[in-house]
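Reopening this ticket.

The earlier resolution said the output was attached, but the attachment link was broken on my side. Pasting everything inline this time so it's all in one place.
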Amino acid sequence: MNKQFYSHLVAVGTLSVELDELELESHERDELVELIHITVHHVVIDVVLTELNEDEKKIFLHNLSNDDHKTILEHLHSIVENLEDKIKQASSSALEDLRRDISEVKNQI
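Inline output:
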């Protein structure tokens, strides 16, 4: 997955390592890693959009579609208090849910 404006806040690598412990085909592991990234992305976008009014959402989505990470962060930091903490908390919760799912699969093997 491409680098995102929040990539420095979210570490999905530990889940990739846990997936390595499962007996997966290469393409299966790759698909699961992609799903992890997509899940985190949706969680982060939801957190951000929840914090914005309609006009700010349009600006954010425009910057996001242009893949302008610096402008996205500058814009969000100017209007969202504790943005990074909110992203870290929401993504951490999502990753923990995914980690539990992986553990359940490990225990079934």
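Reporter confirms the inline version is readable. The chain has five helices and no strands. Residues 52 and 80 are 8 Å apart (CA to CA).
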